[in-house]
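Document type: protein sequence-to-structure record

Subject area: structural biology

Format: plain text, a pair of labelled lines:
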Amino acid sequence: MCRIEQLLRQTIGLDADSIGSSSIQRTVRLRMRCLGLSALDDYYRLLTLSREEWKELVEAVVVTETWFFRDPQLFEALARLATQDCLRAHPTAPLRLLCVPCSSGEEAYSALMALDEAEVPAERLHLDAADISARALARARRGVYGKNSFRGKDLAFRDRYFQHTREGFLLDPAICKRVNFFEGNLLSDDFLRGKEEYDFVFCRNLFIYFDPAMRKKALNTIHRLMSPSGVLFVGPAELPLVIEHGFVSAGIPMAFACRKAASGHGRRDARVAAYKPARFLNLPPSRPIYKISPAPAPASRPAAVVARPGRSISTDLGMAQRLADVGHLEEAAEICEAHLRLAGPSAQAYYLLGLTRDAQKDSASADFYRKALYLEPNHYETLLQMALLSQKNGDSERAFAFQSRAQKLKPTI
């Protein structure tokens, strides 16, 4: 199994620890059963010989969770920067955007709709979107989405850009055809080699699945693809990771944006960030202005028990917390992992996993904390732990930033 995990790491950058080795093992065993194989060596040999089976495995392990206007302040910042910065500085040049990985298209289309609302001329905009999943790209090109792709209370944009059909919500074909979707791997040495640079790059919630070496390789490629004044948008928990590799924060609240370290745009970004959304979305009354709201927190699921040969494991996170408090770290970690398998991503589960790894002086704790903050950017306990971890690593500036965020959220007694 280690050889397969290594193959996934080298090819698509997937760090087995980021989703759990047990998850990869289950996926591999399922593929083996489908193919009638019983020996792991036989399956590994097939992976190295069959491009089709390799694609099947990749499709099964990649994470494609996304929705429209995820982290809405990001898209407000995009429209501000595009209209008040890029287009003014370059009145005739095209505005170039890249979304990688683009999954099933929600993020790329969100960017396009935000710029459309800000009245960026269609002829000025070029948007490329890449992913390693052929199935995700097929869904993106088709432009039909279910209810899970629309989260939050204010969905006026759906009425404007989508038609409700029997199959789902069909995106306006005029929007669909404006995005160039293609299959591509950010870790390939020739990814978009020789292409024009991009003004904006979306690479969100990918780096949390990479180990440091693969993360550095991906960021080197992104650095090559960005224009000198370009802006990179990442996930909420990824900004600290990116800043370690030649980027600086753009200073735009809740946009998780950064620039190349030598871009010299920090002062201008602060000015742009000061504008309020209503000011830049100054559209004619004839065109509806929609407000984008963040998605509500997912409803908690009841605790359950996962069957295992000869025993069962609770998925009660309260029990995991109690076990961790008395030093039963492995048992607590098992409960958290079982909860993630059964109930899906959970900030509290990742936070507790981080605690157990932290107590064991395992460097993987930081990755679990980052996942918790990705799911819940204002998770108070995780912010405190990240502050402590940053201080321990000698990064006082980042420790202060995490502590300040936690202080604003400090529960009142």
Q: What stands out?
A: The chain has a mean pLDDT of 81. The first strand starts at residue 95 and ends at 99. The two ends are 49 Å apart (CA to CA). Residues 2-61 form one domain.
